[in-house]
Amino acid sequence: MKKEPTIVIAVPQEDQAEQVKSVFAAQGFNTLYTDHGDGVMKYLETSPVGAVFCAYSFDRYGDGLDVLMHVRRQNPAVAVIMLAEEPDLAACKQSLKRGAYDFFVAPPDRSELERLARELRPTGPPKGIEDFVFPGVVSRSPAMQGVYRILRRVAPTDLTVLIEGESGTGKELTARSLHANSKRADKPFYPINCAGLAESLLESELFGHVKGAFTGATADRKGLFQLADKGTLFLDEIGDMPALMQAKLLRVLEDGLVLPVGGSTPIKVDVRVISATNHDLAKQVEEKQFRQDLYFRIKGVSVTLPPLRNRPQDIPELFGYFLKQACEEIGTNIHLITEPAMRALMSYSWPGNIRQLRHVVRTTVALCDRDTIDLRDLPPEIARVKQLEAPLSGAHLIAAGQETAGLPLEEVEREHIRRTLELTGQNRAEAAKLLKIGERTLYRKIKEYNL
User: Fold this and answer.
1) How far apart are CA 429 and CA 440, in angstroms?
2) Phi then psi dihedrals of residue 42, to 5 deg
3) The model's pTM
4) Torsion angle, CA of 278/282/284/288, rounded to 10 degrees?
5) Angle at alpha carbon of residue 248, lines to 244 and 250, rounded to 5°
6) Residue 58 and residue 34 share a domain
7) Which residue range is the domain that position 333 belongs to?
8) Residue 64 lies in a domain
9) CA distance 136 to 72
10) In degrees to the nearest 10, what's the CA dihedral of 288, 289, 295, 296?
11) Of 196, 339, 413, 424, which residue is most buried, by most CB within 10 angstroms?
């Protein structure tokens, strides 16, 4: 079932709060109210907040900019709208520079509030994952949206799933998300790396053994198939599984019976199997390195996770996700990144994919002694990457799969502005600088193109 969006209204004047509430409630929002900044923090911890309408200053308990920075650090996807008591250009610039979605002066115009509510209200499943939980698997790219659509359909079933992709693209996270969104979610999930174990040990790990089956087997031991009964077993790097083990696995998948090493009585199990590989299994089948019958058995449904270098538009949001994790883990307070640093991240090829990005963010946060990450804080191999002349050159558009020749100029401009905003993490002040236009001009075009 689709959940209604939630907005926190944090303004000390109750009449202004009622005005904002009436507009957003009419657009289907759930509204939460607090008269001080600390209340926003509490709501963020207990409710699925999508937007915050916040006073620039409070009579007590917190400053509006502090709230803005806290929200941006905790969840960059939450839109924060600032409200000042009187016109203040410096306050407006400061708010937008720190990532505010919009800036209003009290009393807010009702038509502008209605326009804002329409912009913030999702018209469909946000990012394609509204009804599917993907912790750590964040993407706006069309290729990943296609993956999400397939996974949403297959999650409630017991079909086997094969996840293909380069190392570090998030195959285990995807497998865990499949399990978490299945009817087996309250049952065990067991992962095993098929490439990291010798054949005899792998057999014992998967199927278990009886007492005396081999030297050191001093007691009966259940294998992962038995432990994962009624749940999910994730076979990572299945392309590296030895040939003899492939035959034994096929037999278990076909009849649901496990024979422990050294045992004589098969054991019935009910396990959903999800497999993953960074190899081209179809090619391995052709070269007789992987059993064709097993390939078709584990490939009930197959998805391929694209490498991070093919979806640079995802890097700002992934960066925000990992930044929040790292700050909480290390206990630091970093909430901003400069535009040159973000360009470097988006220009890098990321051979280790998402896993490498997460490691870079954690290391950078640990070593950075300021509240803003700059180019000099990044590892040398990333900082040295040739920077793009502009956030969206024609070559960059084509590389992203969007040929511009023949398109209406209006459409090209809209896409150019959209991607520049994406590059700057929706920081309109920074986007205006990159586009070499005034903030008012950018604001007008955002409204004109409904960005």
Assistant:
1) 10
2) -65, -40
3) 0.58
4) 160
5) 115
6) yes
7) 310-448
8) yes
9) 17
10) 0
11) 424
pLDDT in the model for residue 124: 41
Walk along the chain (451 residues) in steps of 10 and give the mean pLDDT of each run.
73 86 87 83 79 81 76 74 84 76 84 83 45 58 79 90 93 91 92 87 90 82 92 95 93 92 90 95 93 94 90 84 87 85 89 93 91 90 62 37 57 80 70 78 81 78
Q: Spell out the long-range contacts of 250-255 with Cβ–Cβ below 8 A and sequence spacing 24 or more.
A: 250/291, 250/293, 250/294, 250/297, 252/207, 252/225, 253/160, 253/294, 253/297, 253/298, 254/297
Nearby residues of 125 by Cβ (< 8 Å), 6 or more positions away: 2, 131
Domain count of the fold of the chain: 3
**Burial letters for 87-96: b for 16+ Cβ neighbours within 10 Å, e otherwise?**
eeeebbebbb
Peptide bond between residue 76 and the one before it cis (omega within 30 degrees of 0): no
Q: Which helix (H) or strand (E) holds 408?
A: none
Q: Are residues 297 and 153 in the same domain?
A: yes
In 3D space, the residue among 353, 359, 400 whose CA is nearest the CA of residue 378 turns out to be: 359
| Whether residue 398 sits in one domain with residue 277 | no
d(CA 205, CA 430): 54
CB 236, CB 199: distance < 8 Å: no
Please give the structure tokens belonging to residue 120.
């913030």
Among residues 315, 304, 301, 309, which one has the least CA distance to residue 352?
309
Q: What pLDDT was estimated at residue 272?
A: 96
From 28, 59, 25, 30, select the one nearest 46 (Cα to Cα): 30
Retrieve residue 37's tokens: 């900044």
CA distances, 360 to each of 29, 230, 379 (Å) = 37, 38, 8
- Does the residue 1 lie in any domain? no
- Domain identity same for 268 and 408: no
223, 248 Cβ separation under 8 angstroms: no
From 151, 135, 131, 132, select the one nearest 305 (Cα to Cα): 151
